[in-house]
Amino acid sequence: MKYWLMKSEPDVFSIDQLKKDSTTWWEGVRNYQARNFMMKDMEVGDAVLFYHSNATPPGVAGLAVISKAAEPDQLQFDKKSEYFDPKATKEKPIWYCVQVKYADKFKELVSLQDLRDNDKLKEMLVLAKGSRLSIQPVDKKHFDIVKKMGGL
């Protein structure tokens, strides 16, 4: 099993929306490194820290699980979508996404500042200067610490 942090803006898609829907395709990712994590590295059963970005405050809101392996992101073919890519074809898709399933919501948000304040987490990628990647691997030890900080 691998561990991940996946960012979503809560006004676009929050942990509460995931709980309501149960699952979602993690569509609209248009960064090659993040896409490659989904295509090549994520497996069904991998655990996810669900991170609310561009929020006040930003932070980890809960947990999710990868429930289906990567498939072509259907939004790349939809001319009405902001994620449409004219270079993508059904025969040669460019963008992929995994399905994510709700696991649990933290009793309290673990804010970005809370993460920074914990010396045991200083190596987390989300804390690295200039780190803006929407999907990133997380060490198991860091995942376990954040989960405990969230009250689970």
From TrEMBL:
Residues 2-149 form the EVE domain. This is EVE domain-containing protein.
